[in-house]
Amino acid sequence: MQLTKQEQKMLDGAEGYAVRKSMEILVALGDIYGAKSLIKVGSVQVAGVSYSNLSDAGLEFLNELAKDGKVKVLTTLNPAGMDLENWRSLGISPEFAEKQNLVIDAFRRMGILVSCTCTPYLIGNLPLFGEHLAWSESSAVTFANSVIGARTNKEGGPSALAAAFVGKTPCYGLHLDENRVPDVHVQVKAELTKLSDWGALGYAIGKKAENKIPYITGIETADLDSLKSFCASVVTYGAKPLFYIKGVTPAACQQKQPKENVIVEQADIKEAYASINDQVSDIELVCVGCPHCSINEIAKVAELLDGKRVAEGTEFWVATSRTAKQLADKHGYTQAIEAAGGKFACDTCMAVAPLKGRFKSLATTSAKGCFYSRQNLMKTKMGSMEECVEAAVTGKWSS
Ligand code: F3S
């Protein structure tokens, strides 16, 4: 890879340990993927924040970098393993909390915004069309590439951090026009009536367009929450972190419809639900907010819970960013949800919190949430916000 004089100096250690280490990571990555140069990034989103995934070795690595590392661009964090303020009410142990706080402290010393969300675009890390980024979390990467039209590969935690310290990333993969060309035309001939249908659609397309970039037709409109859910699902179940929807996503009009053609019908949506849903009726945890709830979704939960009470033996979590929760506080949504026995899980989510073995069953609106909760040994049910609130109130899945 061709380095500028300034980049070579950084690699030689002129800006200290963290920048040198970061340059080593970026140059190695660039060489592996055939990048010709580094490219400036507008922002970074760092995943790998939960102590569950990092362990002591990861914490040590972060502390080393934090000694002299300071980020050069706007950098935000993915969810951590716990709510940083109310971890006790979510059943997190003091030992875990102590370690998680050390992780957060290391990131804070690096100058990273402790946003702890997979929806950075909702809390102030909003890229521009065409802007180059180094983001990590797969749903956020897919949203940035597809819904916004920015350009980012799906970075690992260390390569995202390296980009933050250098302000650049190797120019390969989805940064280049030639790798952003759709390769399969997906005709959607199914009706999508509720939020979880978008998760099911993502599942169906992910399976049919495995490792490809879909160009989707047949969808006339989509709101932000539906697209956010679809982004999480389509990439979890197999597609690349980039799609086009004709008439909906901004770069679709610049692309030609590919020759390879697949059709998604109502039967595929039904089949997606059948694969995602397990045989279970008693629900121990209901968690909405994967990706993190928008303020609209929180408002809907508050409305649905009005005058109701979460069942004994069932927990109901609303996973969201602290910023969205602060808005919810101001509008009275928090009080309404908590008065009904619901809990906020800010800064964290069902996939990165240490939940393995704690709950046997989960209900959620999210196909991605089901995928990761199965890894945490839970039986899963996916449905609409209404069905999830109903499950929280009765402790049972009814359909
Ligand atoms: Fe976000 Fe966690 Fe889902 S990171 S997309 S809420 S699995």
How would you describe the shape?
A: globular
Structural class: alpha/beta
How many angstroms separate the termini? 56 Å
Strand content: 15-25%
Q: What's the alpha carbon Rg, rounded to whole Å? A: 21 Å
Largest β-sheet summary: 5 strands, parallel
Instruction: Count the DSSP helices.
Output: 14
Helix content: 40-55%
Order of helices and strands: HHEEHEHEHHEEHEHEEHEHEHHEEHEH
Order of strands, widest sheet: 12-11-10-13-14
Bound molecules: FE3-S4 cluster
Average pLDDT figure: 97
The total of beta strands comes to: 14
Task: List low-confidence stretches.
Answer: none
Task: Describe it.
The protein is an alpha/beta fold and 399 residues long. It has helices at residues 5-12, 17-33, 51-66, 94-109, 138-148, 157-166, 195-208, 224-236, 266-276, 295-305, 322-331, 333-339, 367-375, 385-394; strands spanning 38-40, 43-46, 74-77, 134-135, 168-170, 184-189, 214-217, 244-245, 261-265, 285-293, 315-320, 343-346, 361-364, 379-382. The strands form 4 sheets. It has a 5-stranded parallel β-sheet with strand order 12-11-10-13-14, sandwiched between helices. The longest helix has 17 residues, at 17-33. The protein is globular and about 65 Å long. The relative contact order is 0.13. The model has no long low-confidence stretch (mean pLDDT 97). The site of FE3-S4 cluster (F3S) has 16 residues, from strand 10 and helix 13.
